[in-house]
Design brief:
Blueprint lengths: L1 H22 L1 H19 L4 E5 L2 H14 L11 E3 L4 H10 L5 H9 L5 E6 L5 H13 L2 E6 L3
Parallel strand pairs: 1-2, 1-3, 3-4
Length: 150
């Protein structure tokens, strides 16, 4: 019986969060602004990049695939990439510099003014994600953060 209540609690908490977000005008405005920036980026033949660690890296890769794949309907591919996907690069830079530098170096190499960077971090404190944001801001990119509560 205890596991049943745990599952119900997890589902109820998730639904409550979604309901709260649906009522949050500031959050809705940020979503609309982000969508407009992404659409503008793609209209200018720009790139949308994603980064995260662990499960957030898996989420980043999934989101990038939806843009470069087909999502709901057939269309031309859009340039979207998860920055962790090149494991040779990732392990070399982590070894030669530090793990904190793996994403910022790719942002410096691959991105241009007007591109978009999504950073996904449960804590919101991952140094490699924060460094990527700094590199993106230095280039004049638009940054979006998906972070956990708090």
């Amino acid at each position: 019986m205890e596991n049943i209540e745990k599952i119900k609690n997890i589902l109820t908490t998730s639904a409550s969060l979604k309901m709260a977000l649906a009522k949050d005008e500031k959050f809705i405005a940020m979503c609309l602004d982000s969508v407009a920036k992404i659409v503008d980026c793609f209209k200018r033949d720009g790139k949308v990049m994603f980064c995260g660690n662990g499960g957030s890296a898996a989420d980043a890769q999934h989101l990038a695939a939806e843009f470069s794949g087909r999502f709901y309907h057939d269309r031309d591919p859009l340039f979207a990439e998860a920055l962790h996907a090149n494991t040779s690069y990732l392990t070399a830079v982590a070894n030669d510099y530090s793990f904190a530098e793996v994403y910022s170096r790719l942002v410096k190499a691959k991105c241009r003014k007007g591109d978009v960077l999504f950073g996904i971090s449960t804590s919101g404190n991952s140094q490699n994600i924060l460094n990527a944001y700094q590199a993106a801001n230095n280039k004049g990119m638009y940054t979006i953060g998906f972070i956990g509560k708090g």
